[in-house]
Design goal:
Strand content: under 5%
Shape: globular
CATH architecture of the largest domain: Orthogonal Bundle
Structural class: mainly alpha
CATH topology of the largest domain: Hypothetical protein af1432
Radius of gyration: 20 Å
Number of domains: 2
CATH superfamily of the largest domain: Hypothetical protein af1432
Number of helices: 17
Helix content: 55-70%
Distance between the termini: 55 Å
Oligomer: single chain
Order of helices and strands: EEHHHHHHHHHHHHHHHHH
Largest sheet: 2 strands, antiparallel
Length: 341
């Protein structure tokens, strides 16, 4: 693969074999990013929301006061709280404090942070620039976040919203790579044909690292909590993270699985995506095909909530049902036969 005139190195050749560098410090790409990447800063309110939601001493009034500093976020939250999804015909929510009471502090925090990221993401999208498909990026990010929250609840983790945000941000490194080399990123995403695993391989071959490692650097530059940094870095290979607690290990596995579940909705080869998701579910969290089918069927409910909040179309009812039907057929075929002869 040629670098097409860019400043990024090819894979290092050693003794006739291809090798990728293992540390950030060895990557000229990181130096190039630090010196030239014009990545917008995460809005201060977003970082404060994350920290407050993870602070056990923080109260509803404090969160309401913080979110109240951003009228656009307030408007979206109140619209969501009064939507039919939350029984809007039975009540009228007129304040963030009421929204927190209805939705929960962590979920309100997740929605508020997500909207801040959504605006940042759109600010970074230059329609006149050749680069990755931002619509596909956002769709996969949303699908992964919903799947991550559901998997977290399924596994009874203490804070499913931590997984929701980690899953939402797991591909942030793609935005960084796209900011440095949009033409290359566009080529790689096109060549991968929406196969996220293949995309990761192509990134390593061209850049010397993948978007998971780059995403960790972005999370560090945004001063996000360590758990988010770790989850983003491990989103493809959580097994490589050995220096973490049991609770963190579950977080990493949930986030990694969320990406595979998102691919069921975003990858054109649905049957292949379902098979890979089922395999990952078993290997990462010991979930069986029946568990995976149930989780997949819970995702459209989360889509209803998210689509109303962001006012984005994420799939028609017919498209959603087609995916679920295909997934059910594949999972039934892979489920062990427990029928007694």
């Amino acid at each position: 693969m040629s670098n097409n005139g860019t400043n990024f190195p090819e894979i290092v050749q050693q003794n006739g074999e291809e090798h990728t560098r293992d540390t950030d410090e060895d990557l000229p790409l990181f130096d190039h990013l630090r010196s030239s990447l014009n990545l917008p800063a995460l809005p201060p309110i977003a970082s404060k929301i994350l920290k407050m939601c993870r602070d056990e001493d923080a109260g509803v009034d404090q969160l309401a006061a913080l979110i109240g500093q951003d009228p656009a976020v307030v408007a979206r939250l109140l619209q969501t709280a009064n939507s039919s999804f939350y029984g809007g015909s039975q009540h009228t929510v007129t304040s963030i404090a009421q929204a927190v009471t209805l939705l929960g502090m962590n979920e309100v925090g997740s929605l508020a942070f997500s909207f801040c990221f959504y605006r940042l993401f759109h600010d970074m999208n230059n329609p006149g620039q050749v680069g990755m498909d931002h619509v596909k990026f956002w769709r996969r990010s949303i699908m992964a976040s919903i799947a991550g929250r559901i998997v977290g609840r399924w596994c009874k983790v203490p804070d499913p919203e931590l997984i929701f945000i980690s899953a939402l941000l797991q591909d942030i490194g793609l935005l960084a790579l796209n900011g440095v080399a949009p033409e290359v990123t566009r080529t790689l995403t096109t060549d991968s044909q929406d196969d996220h695993t293949h995309l990761q391989i192509l990134e390593k071959q061209y850049f010397g690292c993948d978007h998971a490692k780059m995403g960790k650097w972005v999370a560090e530059s945004w001063q996000l909590p360590k758990d988010f940094q770790m989850a983003i870095a491990a989103s493809h290979h959580p097994e490589e993270q050995t220096n973490c607690s049991a609770e963190q290990h579950i977080l990493l596995n949930c986030v990694a699985l969320s990406g595979k579940l998102a691919d069921v909705w975003c990858y054109s080869e649905t049957e292949k995506a379902v098979t890979e998701a089922a395999t990952a579910a078993k290997n990462l969290l010991d979930l069986n095909p029946e568990d995976v089918e149930t989780i997949l069927r819970l995702i459209p409910e989360g889509l209803t909530e998210i689509s109303s909040f962001f006012q984005d179309h994420v799939g028609s009812a017919e498209e959603i049902e087609q995916v679920l039907s295909t997934a059910t057929n594949v999972l039934l075929a892979t489920a062990p036969n427990t029928t007694q002869a």
